[in-house]
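Q: For a teaching session next week I want to show students how multiple molecules come together into a single three-dimensional assembly. I've collected the sequence lines for a complex. Could you give me the predicted structure tokens for the whole thing so I can convert them for display?
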Amino acid sequence: MTTQPKLTAACPVPKNDYDKILLSHGGGGTMMHKLINDVFLQSFGTGDLNTQHDSTVVDISGARLALTTDSFVIKPLFFPGGDIGSLAVHGTINDLAMSGARPLYLTASFILEEGFPIQELKRITDSMQKAADACHVQIVTGDTKVVEKGKGDSVFVNTTGVGILEHAQNICPKRIRPNDKILINGDIGRHGMAVMAQREGLEFDTEIKSDSAPLADLVINLLNEGLEPHCLRDLTRGGLASALNEMAAAAGVMISLKEADIPVTEDVKAACEMLGFDPLYVANEGRLVVVVPDHQADKALCVMRSHAQGKGAMIIGQVKEADSPMVLMQNQIGATRVVDMLSGEQLPRIC
Amino acid sequence: MKYLDEYRDAEAVRKLAKEIGQITTRPWTIMEICGGQTHAIVKFGIDQLLPKNLTLVHGPGCPVCVTPLEMIDKALALAARPNVIFCSFGDMLRVPGSQGDLFSVKANGGQVKVVYSPLDAVKIAEKNPDKEIVFFAVGFETTAPANAMAVYEAKLRNIRNFSVLVSHVLVPPAMEAILSSPDNRVQGFLAAGHVCTVMGLTEYLPIAQKHKVPIVATGFEPVDILQGLDMCIRQLEEGRTQVENQYARSVRTDGNKAAQQLIQKIFQISARKWRGIGEIPQSGLELTQEYVDYDAEKKFKITDISAQESTECIAGQVLRGIKKPGECPVFGTKCTPETPLGAPMVSSEGACAAYYRYRRYN
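A: Of course. Below is the structure for the complete assembly, covering every listed component.
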């Protein structure tokens, strides 16, 4: 090279805000939180709206009921380890369970696109009933709407759930205290990678199966054994990292993790490495974190491991006092880093 | 996992870090070229294990970071066309152009698709003969062979509704530019292992000789990076300036000949603008005359789109290793991944994003 350019510092003008909904607004990260704060809380935030927990507990004539609702828009509809139907039942049951409730009733609403095969719809509803039966939950009311072809994506399912609290405990993020231990019921990232592999036609040596599963029974076992979890949180979009960040922010604490203790299967690890994803941010549908007082951690671990949905349970970290809420993780080589909340979705990287 | 666990082994890491501490007698400044290496260093906290008199600075090897603003604007203009399906690697979608990003174009009805391989874009072209498919061909020598293969396949199969928006850059000219800069502080390089896997080592020999710097082709895991540093520091301490290969499990001296031949068939060397750095002569690739019909800029006549980059952030100095992200006055306050002022904050491989994500507690 003969001529060298003069190197000057330069940088683009920012793109600060979006005035339309992006897919990232649904990714479970900071963009979704901004949307909730700027739009939904502005309008709805005057009553009992609870945006910090998976379900809300209301007192009706002395009965403590948990309420929650969730919509399911997954593509593909059928994937290894589950389908949109079982997911719609498990997802809502799990949100109720995070308040420590025994799920009782579900509603089921369908938005169907013109041209959607009825046979596939039947497959979905059968799967929902099977999942509900397994959890001793009844689907008691529903709704059907059909939209023109091209105005919906084959089928969207909404389920709303009601459960009853059979104990006096108040399980919510605000009750998290320094020294509490953080437990998880098994390996992370399987649901997200199973769906992605199916959707994108990625082929791996072994088929990754979704972890989709109901968690209410596991939670009720914990409560029946006399444990007093300060907080429960099921890990869905945004994965373990987003859930822990939300909890740290709500409780004003620091959460300290040990990477070596967080279970990830080899096939999920490999798929994530290939795509440049971090399993900490990948979606789950059958995983929860349990925050218990330090002295109850060993017993909680034992109870979880004795349940079918908690065989791979681990203690993964501890709560500490902090000036600003944060999640930190010590890696295998002993260095510590921040586990941040994602802004939107994880994007596969270039190389 | 094989090829991974043994390169993240805590005992091996501690041993190497100790060894580096023992052999380092003077202060040295070493640049890792690739954004993937930068992320590994910050994510795994490798720099926390190193002696105080060793400074690591982060290089320009982040394709998202160095793709110039006007190229993003061209991508946005193409993606907004009603008849175009714009295909891109995922992490280009959030990079801000002069106005908006590809996510915004998508929200406004543009067809933007994330692909995992450029050949997927060719398949999309085949399936949608009534649409124009444009693939955003960005990256260094690493992505060039696959992008070249997509163009080659499209021509071979006479797929006419496929074209590429090319913004390919090359590593050695950027190293030249960094070393020739009057305020350069880099004394040795960890070269990007994957770039070297494609191109081999020989093109680094003249740079090492002319500028008297050691260059070590290095991998991306903690043990790789520490071994690379160890080799580089030994050279500096002994006064040697050679090209060495730490990443021998992937890099051959001659590189991947088949990949190189494909690149040469489809692309030719050209001047390229680098975001935050400016134009560097002979620092990129453009399509050869034989494949010029697949050039999206010419096909859609958008060669005249240009953009002026603002001088607000210090991205250029970060990309050249003159400053670290934390030295920027707006780092972590005005400039965050949600509201990036500079490309290094956008990309998953950008140095600023790495420091923001993993180091904020410092």
